[in-house]
BTB domain-containing protein
Amino acid sequence: MAHEPGASSSANKLECTRIHIEKCYYTWTIKNFNLQINKDSRELISPAFYSGKNNEDKWRLELGLRNKDNEDHIGLYLTLVSSRRKTIDVDFCEFAILKSTSKMCKRKFQCEYNEEDSRGFKDYINMKKVDEVLDDNCLKILCKIIISSCYEEKLNEKEVNSQITTQQYLANDLRNFLVNSILADVTLLVRGTEFQAHKQILAARSRFFADKFSEELNDGIVEIGDFEPKVVEAMLHFIYTGDKSVVEENAQDLLSAADKFGIEALKAECENILLANLTEDNAVQMVFISLINHAERLHNSVMDFINSHQSNVDFKLLDELVGKFQKIKIDNS
């Protein structure tokens, strides 16, 4: 059968197995650890953290404090709480305890996970050596997960040999447009600092800007007075490149910016960072942050954490902050 001009032929295509690698890092800090293990609880549960495309995999860490099979040790387990995937092949999972600048008690495993599966080590920490792994009575656990998934794809030879993905080219090109103000057609004025940008890119990534640019602009200027220039600069960098590294230092402020400007991908990354740093000391404040920024996933995870750490939570302060949020909500209605 003849091919029409311009039609691609399967003979010119190569069968290619693509391997997608996901890396997830999570640090769990447990303060006043000696006090925690002397309570009646049989386990301590971390806040949830996420992996996968669109954060579809929900994980948590669990410390087993009173294991009948091994009472002299504390167990550590990684649990898959939920996932839209049928199975997840964890090629590499490493637990380590962070103390000062060193890593201690490294343990690794590899296995297949189904929803609600829990894997780990029942003898992770020797009870007699607990003080040796604490840093100012804090236990800091690092969990590193590497997940790979394979899929078949037909590519031409040029695509197979390409060393840089289309996404990387696109991110680099857009970064160049942002940094060098190439063909910029709008100015963001942020507390005296100007950022040159592009209406179509902002509108494609932000509900706020999509609505804004459908209106008439005065001199092509948008004034932003709610945020510091460094926050808007980081937000723009994420909008143009999708680079997650800009989120870590300004997660709380960027969460507010993502909520105001309607940037869902940025909001999800901010929630991940804040959950990774959730502790008993900041959990109540995190409830307030989640409420004022309409961060439902963050709110649900923090409330799960509070429910499992009730004896160490200041519920009076929680009631005050929830009341403060309700007042703000009424004032703005």
Summary: Confidence is low (pLDDT under 50) at residues 1-11. The first helix runs from residue 33 to 37. The chain is about 35% helix and 30% strand. The radius of gyration is 24 Å.
